[in-house]
## 1
Amino acid sequence: MKLATLRNGTRDGALVVVGKNNSVYASASDIAPTMQAALDRWDEVEPKLRALAEQLEGGQVEGTPVDPTQMMAPLPRAYEWIDGSAYINHIVLVRKARGAEPPATLETDPLVYQGGSGVLLGATDPIEVPNIEWGADFEAEVGVILGDTPRGVKAADASKYIKLIVILNDVTFRNLIPAELAKSFGFFQSKPATAFAPFAVTPDELGEAWKEGRIHLPLNTYYNGEKFGDPEAGPEMHFSFNDLLQHLTKTRAYTAGTIVGSGTVSNDDRSRGSSCLAEQRMLEKIDSGEFKTPFMKPGDTVKIEMLDKAGVNIFGTIDQKVVDAD
Amino acid sequence: MKLATLRNGTRDGALVVVGKNNSVYASASDIAPTMQAALDRWDEVEPKLRALAEQLEGGQVEGTPVDPTQMMAPLPRAYEWIDGSAYINHIVLVRKARGAEPPATLETDPLVYQGGSGVLLGATDPIEVPNIEWGADFEAEVGVILGDTPRGVKAADASKYIKLIVILNDVTFRNLIPAELAKSFGFFQSKPATAFAPFAVTPDELGEAWKEGRIHLPLNTYYNGEKFGDPEAGPEMHFSFNDLLQHLTKTRAYTAGTIVGSGTVSNDDRSRGSSCLAEQRMLEKIDSGEFKTPFMKPGDTVKIEMLDKAGVNIFGTIDQKVVDAD
């Protein structure tokens, strides 16, 4: 089942069910007015939403054509947005890029940070860059949306708390990171609003590709119209979403609608390209002694999408343009 | 005007207006169902809430007696919870306690971190401590709740975005901090759910005590029934809330209902005591060579409140007991 949030002039938009081929949607407002409302009463509303999805697929309910620019982020604001960094290859490369060592516990203790969740961008919203000296970068990631999740979940039991899967662009101002991390309180100004592809899908929508808390499909990123990377999101996700949930719930519980990200998808195999500019730049530096690819500037575009084995664009496309903001 | 959130079996509770002497409340559900709903339409609902507050004060509306245990956090879940660390004395002491240097930019660049906001505790909710080895500590703070706040706010214009003032207990697992900060992604497991006093008040409720983005009153903390600290929250708040807002809005905007904390209130004058155990412990270590006061264990109690010049308990009392959770 695919869900989305239709722009309707309100802060949180209107919940819609989207057909499997992404072309039409049906209003789900009679079942739950918003995505958050659906997640708040998930056990009750999920069967109703699935029934509506079947009716839409079968033609018993008339669909309205999908206009991606009319879709907001699945959750236009969320109660929590927690981003992991679960691909070891990414951690090693970006730390090298800023002259930092990977943490000693790299392979045993997940890296996560709490992100800003009050303003989340839709798939075609512009990336505002007030200052190109800040080093604007994209980061293509996969993520999950939780139902109510108690403290103390073990990885083996974690998958039942994962209600929806998303893909996202964790926009980052690279050049603001070193000074922030030097203060030891983590990222803040270096992480502006995150953008999401329009469709949030239930795990079964991925079929065999959803396995043991990982998504076994490539995540495609296009930068200024050219393929930039298509790394596999599955095998090299060192900590699965199940592992991340065990880590997150050690000391607290989460409300329905909490979003958890994988971190930048990254493969050791260079032929798969990268999901962010920082990795590409570091590889250039290793090979040639200097960074070549500049960070993003107004006019640059980034597209992120994930196709299933049959070629269906599962989540719809993140399709953003960088704009001068001030 | 004082607002609160009444427990009613729903996730977000019911908005009520509270009388100035804290003894009675009146339902505000006809104006806005929840605190978040009120903040989402603040300009429209504020005058109506103020009118109701006047009617309650004047006796034209009958009040219901306040039972503090029936109050949830003003926002039982918030879209963002951002905590500063604006009292230099606190930063210096707690860093010394864990053998770390204060950041080089201590007096010029505010320290803030993004906290978990999906589960916020009411004033009398227990503090769950699954493991006493984690070093559970309280941190008494003041905070503000924002209306919609754009990117790029300057300190001089910031006060208009501050709609409500709160006090809070930023519970911290001290012994989980060093390993987390060593990974450089900031606090996460070391920060379980934060607790809030029941009443969120408009700035005018503080009269002269609200000045230039600071609250010029002492914040009282009682630990196991004894006064633990009563530091002044105003003069030594090195970065005011206005300064913090300028810092926060450098790269992004905030939705209504975003909560911003001051960090642990702390004075250089030792006779004012402390607002957390970590400071007290560091002072013991400086004086005697060893930490004496242990961190919290099941059965310990912490009370936090702030009185105005007339002795009125402005926000109501945070009154929590530590419980063994697992």
## 2
Amino acid sequence: MDHRDILEKYKSGELELVDALSHFAKKGIEDMGFANIDTDRFHRTGLPEVIYSSGKTTEQVRLIAERMYLKGIDILATRATEEVFEAVKSVVPGAIYNALARTISYKRQERDDGKGYIAVVSAGTSDLPVAEEAVETARFLNNRVETVYDVGVAGIHRLFNKWEIIRNARVIIVVAGMEGALASVVGGLVDKPVIGVPTSIGYGANFQGLSALLSMLNSCASGVSVVNIDNGFGAACQASLINKL
Amino acid sequence: MDHRDILEKYKSGELELVDALSHFAKKGIEDMGFANIDTDRFHRTGLPEVIYSSGKTTEQVRLIAERMYLKGIDILATRATEEVFEAVKSVVPGAIYNALARTISYKRQERDDGKGYIAVVSAGTSDLPVAEEAVETARFLNNRVETVYDVGVAGIHRLFNKWEIIRNARVIIVVAGMEGALASVVGGLVDKPVIGVPTSIGYGANFQGLSALLSMLNSCASGVSVVNIDNGFGAACQASLINKL
Amino acid sequence: MDHRDILEKYKSGELELVDALSHFAKKGIEDMGFANIDTDRFHRTGLPEVIYSSGKTTEQVRLIAERMYLKGIDILATRATEEVFEAVKSVVPGAIYNALARTISYKRQERDDGKGYIAVVSAGTSDLPVAEEAVETARFLNNRVETVYDVGVAGIHRLFNKWEIIRNARVIIVVAGMEGALASVVGGLVDKPVIGVPTSIGYGANFQGLSALLSMLNSCASGVSVVNIDNGFGAACQASLINKL
Amino acid sequence: MDHRDILEKYKSGELELVDALSHFAKKGIEDMGFANIDTDRFHRTGLPEVIYSSGKTTEQVRLIAERMYLKGIDILATRATEEVFEAVKSVVPGAIYNALARTISYKRQERDDGKGYIAVVSAGTSDLPVAEEAVETARFLNNRVETVYDVGVAGIHRLFNKWEIIRNARVIIVVAGMEGALASVVGGLVDKPVIGVPTSIGYGANFQGLSALLSMLNSCASGVSVVNIDNGFGAACQASLINKL
Amino acid sequence: MDHRDILEKYKSGELELVDALSHFAKKGIEDMGFANIDTDRFHRTGLPEVIYSSGKTTEQVRLIAERMYLKGIDILATRATEEVFEAVKSVVPGAIYNALARTISYKRQERDDGKGYIAVVSAGTSDLPVAEEAVETARFLNNRVETVYDVGVAGIHRLFNKWEIIRNARVIIVVAGMEGALASVVGGLVDKPVIGVPTSIGYGANFQGLSALLSMLNSCASGVSVVNIDNGFGAACQASLINKL
Amino acid sequence: MDHRDILEKYKSGELELVDALSHFAKKGIEDMGFANIDTDRFHRTGLPEVIYSSGKTTEQVRLIAERMYLKGIDILATRATEEVFEAVKSVVPGAIYNALARTISYKRQERDDGKGYIAVVSAGTSDLPVAEEAVETARFLNNRVETVYDVGVAGIHRLFNKWEIIRNARVIIVVAGMEGALASVVGGLVDKPVIGVPTSIGYGANFQGLSALLSMLNSCASGVSVVNIDNGFGAACQASLINKL
Amino acid sequence: MDHRDILEKYKSGELELVDALSHFAKKGIEDMGFANIDTDRFHRTGLPEVIYSSGKTTEQVRLIAERMYLKGIDILATRATEEVFEAVKSVVPGAIYNALARTISYKRQERDDGKGYIAVVSAGTSDLPVAEEAVETARFLNNRVETVYDVGVAGIHRLFNKWEIIRNARVIIVVAGMEGALASVVGGLVDKPVIGVPTSIGYGANFQGLSALLSMLNSCASGVSVVNIDNGFGAACQASLINKL
Amino acid sequence: MDHRDILEKYKSGELELVDALSHFAKKGIEDMGFANIDTDRFHRTGLPEVIYSSGKTTEQVRLIAERMYLKGIDILATRATEEVFEAVKSVVPGAIYNALARTISYKRQERDDGKGYIAVVSAGTSDLPVAEEAVETARFLNNRVETVYDVGVAGIHRLFNKWEIIRNARVIIVVAGMEGALASVVGGLVDKPVIGVPTSIGYGANFQGLSALLSMLNSCASGVSVVNIDNGFGAACQASLINKL
């Protein structure tokens, strides 16, 4: 059945929409049995398919990375252990590991596609792994990034110290654990979109980041949106979309 | 102590930074005793001070609205009951009430300051109050808005029916209760920032919107960020900042 | 652009799949602005579009019911108050209200499309509203229904008293609040699929049905699946699909 | 059995400690059957017995207030409705009602027993009922109080505007809902004990104050302790103890 | 099929156990369609069937009470409103209402079947409705009851004041809201079983009794068991079983 | 006492129902002291007794497996580590281990007892362990199974790619973590029962699968029921019952 | 100050009650600096001081056990690892370890002080560690114990198989994980107090025993009380108090 | 731009407050790239910057400690493992490790700056790590500390035994896990501020300290405030501020 036939049958009611659709869906999929690489994703959403390593076996990550490499697709793997990196490196020679961010990246070419830069601001040194995941992701997505680290509200003058970097950014990612107040404070001072990333840093009634998550969701500063706990990757994805508008 | 003295004392260490600051802070505040209107907020953050009516007495809202009106400041009050509207109307003649959105607004002049338009997409008819709060807020902030209502994933072809409106938006607000899957589906199909607004619509294990909130925070589509449950206002604020970049 | 052009452009890559789709999606939607009735749903999923009244205004429900009536579509509205019923009745003369179940129904014709019957079993008298919602829905979907009420495990001999009804059903819906143990007990005794409906009946550490929900999800009897708290409607939908297999 | 006998029997092992105790316990109790007024509490803990009206019938509150009045004990009733106040006023002529704070108070004499004053700082106008409960309680406990209202972090310059009041206090109560960031910001700037009172103000993922509660418990500023949600009364009690040290 | 045939078929494997059972189960049930009164319950468990009024319509409670009355069964209805009482009274002339406890009771004869008495101890005046439900239930079950009210740990000497009543009980019910510490304190001082009843009294992070529930479940005193929040009825049931051992 | 005597005594009231029952209960139990194998379960419920290995010692699993093997009963052990498998293999020579699914199985004979096949659809590669547990269980229960893996809604065209497999199944198991939207999307497109299995895949506000669980329970598609988080086994049990109807 | 003086001063008001008390409190304490052994506990509460090993260092447990041994006090340590046992054994030669229950016990003499026996009933083999903790504790407290294991409601005939043991007990401990329905089923069939022990056995929405805990707290059988999750020790303590009444 | 220019521009409106601020913020920060040491914190808040080791790499802690040491700043690191201590010791020769408290401290000089002493009271031996963290912190902050350990309410006479230490303190820290009742009992007996520290000691429905946290937040004794679970450090910080008033 060629595309014309499908169409005719759909118009005459012989074929359901989804059945018709099922004939068009082959494009943009790299089928590996245990995984279907969405090779069309960048074209469609401006964000490429990325390997979320957690919950996958080392072998699975290696195979996906290899296939992408052979297809000429740039590679970003998040939540990757050192062991996973070694496996990937064996099939993707130029792969680079950021141990703090737990990311593996491989890019054929550096570019800056953004209209401005993304500022990644973090409250404490313990929040760095999440902040670095955001940085790695944003750079992989061809954005310029500036970082302002360890400027939590317990010593708010530290924030003002690097104010120019923050105020001149096109979009700001605020990474904070504990009570996550930094997102509100920054959000109350700038006229740029602020994306909050609550982290699981803290203990006790922090409940693995719930405290910072609720705090940011309830921010009294109105231009703040939030991504999942520890999700530096997701924040960078949205920041990248915004930076390229 | 004039400003020069303050400065000298600060430099010599006689005065703490915050104490010095306290002498400069009078600007941009309209002090009403029970309330301090932040008249500088728009200038600073691109978003004006808005009256969140819930938890305030009718009298308090009326007094704040009146003061803003007299100062020539445009007025938006959210979560306002009909009774509050009547009180405000008595002091702000041109105030308009949107009963579905529960907003009171008063603007001296309509404008379009955005680079594109904001699409507000909602999953079900029951989500309309939240969607309308987003619409009212976005328009108050001088944005053009298009709406696509009742296109939840249980009948996903309804979404495709108005696809052009969604794909051409500069930023998309997705309002959904129950399982909130619409945010992921839209996020997986567009290359624009998507802001999810979980609503408290549903029952049982919905837990007043927790279900949709967690769903959106865990979206497998990576360009999605989230605001608080039922917070159409906050989503519109961030969308407005993005639309004006 | 006619369908042929769309197709050509899609094939040549000028048009994205979803954009192409957007030209085909008009079928099966009754667009009312604030609502899009999915008139194709029954054909597609075996379950018709139903009006979930909660969160909708009386006026909205009335308008949707009227439109469905005029289009010759049978009507089921759940979570409907007496007031909503009065409004619907004014435009749908033959509409019937079940005050316990809070359902409005209107059917042109009674039928039995099932291969057997659905048994609705409830633990206590207080669970009847939910059980009756399941009964009304299952009958609306053209199933035969038998009921066994008030047979909770505190007096387990009551269950055995009506055992024949339960064992001869093709599929069994168990409605229970408090600790919801009835689902496990029934599930451990029959070779038919059991669908558990936890109810919000109880108090204290019942947490509006969470207790029964967790209980049923953790059932040690392995043939039990669960729907949302108080969701008699959803249980009947799945039971109907099973009964017609 | 007189006290000497009890003692002898306790020494000889004939009597258990608690049994011995039971002979000494009559002092400092005003037994009303349904209530035991702890007339010794002020002497023992520096804080008098206070009537928590919620959950008590109007009649019960009236009877307790009357008994205290007749015994010459000053009266503070919290969470009191207007109706309760009318009942109390009928038996305690000089009783005063603060409708915002929902407190009834009756004092024979004003005093200032503190070493300094207590600052009550609130984030938003909607937090006033809780802030006012703290103010009423602190004054009832013979403290001087200064208030700084509506200085939330979304417009942080408002905080600096009244900085002198805050920095000169002996102890500071910070009342805030939503994300409760104000407690951290104040705590990071002063060298006085800060007592945070999370409020239930907000909506959605605020979860009736849980958001602000967790935020304050996880404050990155280290001199902050916390009382229960909306517990202005408790905060004032501890502040009073501290102010009198 | 007579009982003998059933037996034969069961022995030969023609009949399943539960099917066989279903022929014997008619005894001890008063079938009312919407309710099955378990008339055998007292004989079987030492506790009669009791009407839990919440979630039942007034009409349903009236019909059940009437049937029990006509069958000569004593009646206890819990969580009953005044309206329900009026309906019951119209068919059960001697029925008595305890407005604080929200119980309706009707007994043909007073008796004391216990080996000792049950002490009901409550922490605050606001806990009285729950304490009184326990008292009414325990008396209905033919136990002698002594009460010790308003002796919470904030003024622990009040507890010692009535120590003799507590220490001489055969079993002790401790009713407490807020932090529920009274159960631990009593449990650490007596050699009798203590049954804790957490109440929903309190506010904020009390979470409708969760605080007291967790507190009692985690009691460091080891002879303490717990029933559901506000479940004075259940505590009295178990206390009655213990008192009659 | 033979069965006749028991019966006579039960009829005459000398014997309680449960006591009578206790004489009939020996059949269908393989008593091992620490375990009672329910050898009658398959006959009664259509589902055999299965060994849930978690929480049991390796020795216990080995002993149960050995006893089943010697009695000629087919064996399925879930949540089994490699170490447990080695122990089982030493007593059940033909036992097979699926390391991804963590299942041990031993069947004397392959069969297909279903009326159609079960489709197991999973959202991501990380969900495979749960999906494979479903597959192994369904096959053990003599069903034909087809799998569609890695078709999450972030790239919804992948779903349409294998649409025929899904639409032709008799019952569909949807396995998804993160926001679990796949269950709603599939449920909105098919007229077959869909059983959702939320997985614990994800991080942060996923809360070990709570996010996907709530999402599926609140599905706006009405023919969806749900089993416990990661419970591929339970989903397959119910799917098997349905597939054999 | 001798006891007489204290008394005089207390009577004259010179001394507070608690201060007076502090002079009498030395009795019944074995002070070890990091621990105060309550040597009077058995005399006071009928339950001796027991060593809860979790959270203590091996050295601390060893020192406490040694001191008790030297003082001639019988020893029970719960939640003890093998390593702790080795350390205790080095100072308490006759100490015995139950590896399943994780208890160390040392008794000088076996006795039966109960009026009947305690039945410990468990739902599954995986619940044995908790059941065995209850057994060890009950025996340590000089009770006779009978066990009925692996009789969960998925195969309810297994329960009836050992019915006589259950019905003849003076008090029954029911240990169950997953949905914990066994407590309700047993509670609905016996006229003895039932103490439920929820266990953390299960997975997913079991939430470490929360599911079984809520289930038991909400039991529709009214003579059931509950102890903490996995708290076999506490259940045995209360059962022992009841068994000795 | 010198300070005068900044000021002039701020006054003329050319410069925003925060931008002006950014020129003053350099003071009091030791910038290390991944960390900004707040060297002004002690001066500003009376509490020095402390190293929270959890979530930091050993290398990061070592570098921060070294920098502080070289700058002549006293060092306290909390939540430090033995490995971290070894690293710190290599660069800070006089550093001391308290293995129970998991703290590293280094002070040039011992002092007593308090007006009285801080009493640290703990309920059980298992609470010692948290109690010791409080003790170490309080001493580091130049306070005198007295300890009263293992005096939980299950044996309340142990508390009275050391009553004099408690009543003579200027401020009392109560450390307790399980049900945390000790805070209420102490709070009801003293006229000094009580700071409760809930600990994660316990199991089951303790939920990692939630039980004790809620208990303390809901304390019926009114002079009690609370810090985060296991946060001995924070409690000592506030106690120190109070002790120096």
## 3
Amino acid sequence: MHDIFSLRRTEGSARRGTLRLAHGVVETPTFMPVGTAATVKGLTPDEVRSTHSQIILANTYHLWLRPGLETIVEAGGLHRFMAWDGPILTDSGGFQVFSLQGRRKLDDDGVTFQSHIDGSTHRFTPETVIAFEEALGVDIAMVLDVCTKLPATREALEEAVRTTTAWAQRSRAAWKSVNTAVFAIMQGGLDLELRTRSAREIVALDFPGYAIGGLSVGETRDEMYVTARASAVLLPADKPRYLMGVGTVRDIIMAVDCGIDMFDCVYPTRCGRNARAMTRSGEYNIRNAAFTRDYTPVDPECDCYVCTTYTRAYLNHLFRANEMLGPRLLSYHNVYVLNDLMRGAREAIEGGEWAAFRNKHAGNPVAEA
Amino acid sequence: MHDIFSLRRTEGSARRGTLRLAHGVVETPTFMPVGTAATVKGLTPDEVRSTHSQIILANTYHLWLRPGLETIVEAGGLHRFMAWDGPILTDSGGFQVFSLQGRRKLDDDGVTFQSHIDGSTHRFTPETVIAFEEALGVDIAMVLDVCTKLPATREALEEAVRTTTAWAQRSRAAWKSVNTAVFAIMQGGLDLELRTRSAREIVALDFPGYAIGGLSVGETRDEMYVTARASAVLLPADKPRYLMGVGTVRDIIMAVDCGIDMFDCVYPTRCGRNARAMTRSGEYNIRNAAFTRDYTPVDPECDCYVCTTYTRAYLNHLFRANEMLGPRLLSYHNVYVLNDLMRGAREAIEGGEWAAFRNKHAGNPVAEA
């Protein structure tokens, strides 16, 4: 489970690669829709597949609390439980736990926290988290890390890097399953000296893949771009790079331009539930009165099931009537848009046309930075 | 649009027939899932079709108020608006309007009411309702009738029959479209003399089909059975008979046994949204703790997509996690169950095995009455 990645082509920093995982091949750059509680909200696995999703993300924190490990293991693992036979990546739960202000207590060995569902007490350590993810049977397991919200003091960031490295080492030692690839996570906030230290320490541990954590947590978009770009080059060229929690069209395009291969975000499904349509030419709210009698597709440039079957007027009606088909259809479309964007990005890098593709979809990064 | 029905076979009072409508053929007896606001809640038209639904019902009252006639007509009619190319029946809105206690005023010419959405004032007459339904382009349009909640005085029921007949006559005169079959509605509560009068009057007007209205509105189940049975024989044998608002397995089986051909109810989708699973052997709540680690299908006797793909444990988890996939999957399964029941009923009548089928699914009607 070490040589899972082949780098096939680059243009500038942008990379076109292939990930070989236990449940299938993933062409990169790739977007991973989020299935927090063992379901990409509102969509069946067949639909997730038909949006051209290659791999999905599920949340360790949520699954740990509900339905819990025993239920999923008895069901035959997470794939069978949710009837998705493609690759799955699980986060480590660290991000969620550190978001539980006042309900979690960190020590060197791990973190103790209270469930947001019933207040019950739980404990994550690097070892218990890896064991949980391996028992789920996922293709990629993220290590437990310490994610620091920004802005943060240098001391807090330095301490987070120190603990994250120590935990990465323990996770590496705890890793047993040949079907699961464990990825380490870089921290360090916006401090490039700390990013460099974090990268050096986790790369020395020789993981099959690396994530850039601690971004998209309060900094400006420009700060994120600069840090992502500087961080990406600190990681080995022959290993996949994953920028956690990034999901708008512009942010993904910019991150691909920084040399990142993998992304996840609740953005397209959350937007879908809230009537926000993502298109090749921008976003809009489908509930808006302007669309009540608009008989064009949600995105005229889109060939997805929703855009070839329904009109804006119909989706406008569904949202106004609080019909659950509305959130469902728009979530489908939004996930399709991001996957189609990724397909376009892959083709552009293969064809040596990445710069033009990037500028079309995100504007000139230098001019915007 | 008169000879839409062929009676193919009978066993006792139970009937096996075929309806030929503008958008397709419907084999009877048949169950019509309800798509109140131009959507069978939570399901796409493809899915509705794959539950073996042959015809769906939409509500004139709801569509009149939202999105309104202009939007649907501009979209190319109700079929295109909601992307369902099979037959559609619309009710007349009478039932909903007469449920608006204190917000509607009946006169001989029609009924004035206030929208439950925004309080705006609207008026239904037999003519405006037929014109609305024809403009939607539906296959079957129900006439505006006066539906009386039970219990009711003889005077109220007699007045409802008188107005319903007068409105049926006006609806008959207003009917223009050759693509729409207009069905009249019998009233009369539990009073068989009034039922007889109502039937005689509307049958004399020569409609292509007839509904039994004013049941499932407060009476006991036995009262409903007795009245449905007595009412059905008052209607022409060569015209389709529709019992409005009936939707549990037992009630449908009993109504088929009374000689009814068509049914509609929100029951399977409402149950689906509320975690209530319908099966060949009874109903249960899938949220129940007993199913948390039950890895069998929702209904082991079912071959639907949900039962062949997911476990009770997974649906239990989806409902507990408030994931919208839960209501969606269970609605699909419940509609499938009723349509599969109807398929079985048709085969049983064709094969001369209706009595056994009925007794298996609803017990002996005489013993229960």
